[in-house]
Amino acid sequence: MLYEEEYSSSQTVNSSLSKDGLHKKLSGVCAGIAKYYDYPRLGVRVVAVVALIMLPVATGVAYVVASVLLPENKYQ
Is residue 6 part of a domain? Predict the structure, then answer.
């Protein structure tokens, strides 16, 4: 009990949105989003493909911008 009270608050990890290079298919944007929001990678990729079919220009531009602006994950 003392261990949890003493170390639980200092064990917080600053999570930030970044590309996941370990599980990437194209550039790691979908894998990074899935990791950040704790969603399954396959689900995020399916949503991205459906969005690409329904709104190809907006989704394509958003994906390219995210792949350029998001940093690589340093902690694989």
Answer: no
